[in-house]
Specification:
By secondary structure, the chain is of the alpha+beta class. Helix content is 12%, strand content 17%. It has a single domain, classed as Jelly Rolls, CATH 2.60.120.200. It has three helices and six strands, in the order βββββαααβ. A hairpin with a 3-residue loop joins strand 3 and strand 4. It is globular and about 55 Å long. The two termini are 24 Å apart.
Length: 176
């Protein structure tokens, strides 16, 4: 998300389940993402949604049988460009400088590895190598990097936003 010179760039992560998002975690990146390419990975399976930056695990959203989880429907990838000045840049304190347009983003090495539904009641069609992510969960050491990212670089956690959730936090907050 937007920043001003000398301020960290913020990575926003969100999980949508049953048509509802509001599960954001934001992280101040510990590097300048414009200086070189970096790898951003999302591993989504029936057990959890895991977010990685380069080789570091930064977030895991676990599945619980009694809580909404993004399962049972195909995954969709969306990319959008929009003026989120108020939301993304310190509540509008740093507006977009449109005189510096065009703004250019480039990707390299994009890859999607997925199991595809074959129709109602039929098994998924999964490519070779699927097992490396289909049952993936974090190890103890990987949970350590999630804790490191949270303690050192998390700038927003929906589970701590009492203004947004005055009636109480979502139930997964006590568990994730």
């Amino acid at each position: 998300m937007g920043n001003s010179s000398g301020c960290p760039v913020v990575l926003n992560t969100n999980v949508w389940a049953s048509g509802d998002g509001k599960k954001e975690h934001q992280f101040n990146l510990w590097f300048d993402p414009s200086a070189d390419y970096h790898t951003y990975t999302i591993i989504w399976n029936d057990k959890n949604v895991i977010f990685k930056v380069d080789d570091l695990f930064i977030r895991s959203f676990k599945r619980y049988a009694d809580l909404p989880y993004p399962g049972g429907k195909p995954m969709e990838v969306h990319a959008t460009l929009w003026d989120g000045s108020w939301w993304a840049t310190q509540k509008g304190k740093v507006p977009v400088d449109w005189s510096r347009a065009p703004f250019v983003v480039s990707y390299r090495g994009y890859a999607a590895d997925a199991c595809v539904p074959n129709g109602e009641g039929r098994p998924l069609s999964c490519p070779a190598g699927t097992d490396r992510w289909m049952n993936r969960q974090l190890s103890g050491a990987e949970w350590g990097t999630v804790k490191w990212a949270k303690e050192n670089y998390m700038s927003y956690n929906y589970c701590e936003d009492g203004w947004r959730f005055p009636q109480g936090f979502p139930p997964e907050c006590a568990r994730n």
